[in-house]
Amino acid sequence: MRYLHQPYKSGFTLLELLVVLVILGLLASLAGPQVLRQLGGSKTKTASLQIKELSTALDLYRLEVGRHPSTGEGLEALISAPAGAKGWNGPYLNKKSIPQDPWGNDYQYRAPGQHGEFDLFSLGSDNQQGGSGEAQDVVSWE
Predict the structure, then answer these.
(1) Is the residue at 39 inside a domain?
(2) Is the dihedral of CA 46, 47, 48, 52 positive or negative?
(3) 139: enclosing H helix or E strand
(4) Which domain holds residue 48?
(5) 20-45 pLDDT, tens digit each
(6) Largest CA distance in the chain
(7) With the CA atoms of 71, 73, 75 and 77 taken in that order, what torsion angle do they form, in degrees rounded to the nearest 10?
(8) What is the pTM of this model?
(9) Distance of CA 24 to the CA centre of its chain
(10) CATH number at residue 127
(11) Contact at 8 Å (CB) between 69 and 77?
(12) Which DSSP string do the residues of 91-138 spell out, in sequence order?
């Protein structure tokens, strides 16, 4: 004897799928801002670490040349010898170019600095002085 109806096939109803989608949406709205906040904080930490690395290279340059590079010579003096830099034994960085900050901007360098022998800083995500959060300046003198 044949059955007139087909056996019950397991699966999800439309209502069950909608409930799952709503739950996933709620989780994403709660977790998303936290993830973005962590990503922003990691860029600031990366900039701080790069500034420390560049500061160490600048100090090594000073030990060998007898002075820090001038503002005009800039950070490029860590890669190639500027004119008149006796004792230059570089390059002082592993890479063949000066890194940019995590937001794609050049690091700012002044020597002599207003806060020490040199000032090395990033202007943050907004590339303007001041700011808070991810837009805050990351500096070598603090």
Answers:
(1) yes
(2) positive
(3) strand 138-139
(4) 35-81+100-142
(5) 888 888 887 777 777 666 665 688 88
(6) 103
(7) -150
(8) 0.69
(9) 30
(10) 3.30.700.10
(11) yes
(12) --SSSSSPPPPTTS-PPEEESS-SSSS-EEEE-TTTTSSS-SGGGS-E
